[in-house]
Amino acid sequence: MITTVKQYGEIRTGTNYLRALIQRNFPYIFVLSYILGSKHLPPVKFDEIWAEAQQSGADAALRFVSTTTYSQRGGASQPKDPTQHEELTRCAPQIAHTYASGTLGFLVTIKNPYAWVISAARFNGWIKGDEPLQDWSDELMRAACLGYNRNYRAWLSFIAANQQRAKLVRYEDLLADPERELTAIATQFGWRKPDSFATIPAVIEPTQWDHLPVVEADERFNPEFYANSEYLQLLSAKQLQMVNELLDWDLLREHGYARR
């Protein structure tokens, strides 16, 4: 059974929501966001780092976990942070064991790219609330779309290479029926299903680092914004065309996303 899971996914694709649902309904599962590398960046070269760590002696587990964490780190991962070092020291033996035994799982979240552009714009401060995306952000959006392509090429290739212990989770499916999606993950990874499933209606705050708890905001989440494709109203015709031209639709089509 897979009891440790490494997350991946672009910003604002539901990584925090998925982590919260897993922790709420499967509390014995250890979910990694920034440990073993940033969840928003392609996977590190696990096999190479593991082989090098094995040659390092008694601290092989900690060396493996530390190297993977900081060689592909997000902005919140700081090698000299004492609390992060303490957390890595604590969990390194478990993580190294799951990797060595082939029981480390991987979950990649993905969101409809049109919706993701608006979510990313909000997260990055390009827009506030329900204001439309302005022309001044076009180059930022262009770079983000190209990064989206690079990341998902890497993540989807990684899933293909690790089929039994890796799964893609579509944000739209997670919103529509979180219990069904978590049940599918549980079935694939061999998790014990809870007697009753707990949903989370609140907005989930971004994960700051792995050792910190899930934080639910006072604000309730509005799924209709996505279910009714309201995000399209915030994109101009030129910006829609940009997304149409920049995104790798051959890659996305097989996962249910199509050019408008």
Notes on the protein architecture:
Helix 2 (46-54) runs antiparallel to helix 3 (60-71), helix 3 (60-71) packs across helix 4 and helix 6 runs parallel beside helix 10. It is built from eleven helices and six strands. 48% of the residues lie in helices and 11% in strands. Strand 1 (4-9), helix 1 and strand 2 (30-32) form a beta-alpha-beta unit. The chain starts with a strand and ends in a 7-residue tail after the last helix.
Principal-axes shape call: globular
Instruction: Give a quick account of the main beta sheet: strands, pairing sense, barrel closure.
Output: 4 strands, parallel
List the total number of helices: 11
Instruction: Assign the structural class, choosing from mainly alpha, mainly beta, alpha/beta, alpha+beta, or little secondary structure.
Output: alpha/beta
